[in-house]
Input
Amino acid sequence: MTEWIECKISDIGTVVGGATPSTKKAENYEGGNISWITPKDLSTFSGRYIKRGERNITETGLKSCSTQLMPKNTVLFSSRAPIGYVAIAANNVCTNQGFKSVIPNEDTDALFLYYLLKYNKDKIESMGSGTTFKEVSGNIMKNIVVSVPTDKKAQENIASLLGSIDDKIEENERINNNLEQQAQAIFKAWFVDFIPFNGVRPDNWTISSLGEVTNMGAGGDKPKIISAIQTEECPYPIYSNGLSENGLYGYTNTPKICDESVTVSARGTIGFVCIRHTPYVPIVRLVTLIPNTEIISAKYLYLYLKQLNITGTGTTQQQLTVPDFRKTEILIPDKETMSAFTDIIAPLFSKIWANEKENANLSATRDTLLPKLMSEELDVSDIEF
Output
């Protein structure tokens, strides 16, 4: 039987904050090679180990503020806007003030600490304070009480079990990224460079507008019935304009769109394009496009929109409106070409969707095991490796 003890986070690692070098001084950023992470960098990050964020900082920038360079295997935990993003540093990194990261001590396994913080996310978030947005202070983070195995080998076994599931999820994501790149490369060859047509656009192709070849609409209000997880009663995903998990907001009992279609985020990060192949519910700030399949396929529409620079209008807050978006031009190949192209790329999307389904099942298994392992309901010593 594995022995567990209650302790503070400060007992198993060193809690470190971060800071932002002045953005008014170019020498803090230009040519920098020091990885500097912000919560925004983790908003669309789906892996566990992060190497760098959107921006690096320079040695001058590092010395200009209170951010600290932390070693590889530091566990990053966002402490505000929002609370609870978790990742492991794949190399030396520093962060902005939106983190309370934990450098594990020699008796603490870094991957176990990663899962421990994910398990305790809600508890940590509940202890945040603030009027504009909730934030967890360094002092609070240090004094959060957690349960950990006294034996580091037990920590490693728990991490290994959960990590093996995440390894497969990340492998599938890498495969999907490659398949997506293949689909985009084929699209570019056919409809940008016209390689199968001797580099010249065929005369019988036309230019139309999105409004003429799709049924376009805006997402509606949130459903009255919402589940945080997929259940038999609520099997249909709800999508918003968010980026994380392709905008997944939750699940509900009745779908609004059942056709293969495309969605585009209309506010916030405008122009985030996704293809949807299962029934779903779109909500506010999300534009939906159901193609007229007599003219174009959803897969063609998706790849066409992916290569556009989609922007919004407005002075106070930019947004993408349906009336304006309907006017966007789209290239329409002849039916024979459209059919041939769709037949070529359809297997790529089928494999992507099969991997996504497998990942959903793997995630559900991991998320079921995590609380059982961390609450001692399931003893890691009973698990064979």
The longest strand covers residues 83-89. The longest helix spans residues 152-191. Residues 15 and 102 are 5 Å apart (CA to CA). The chain has two domains: 4-150, 206-332.
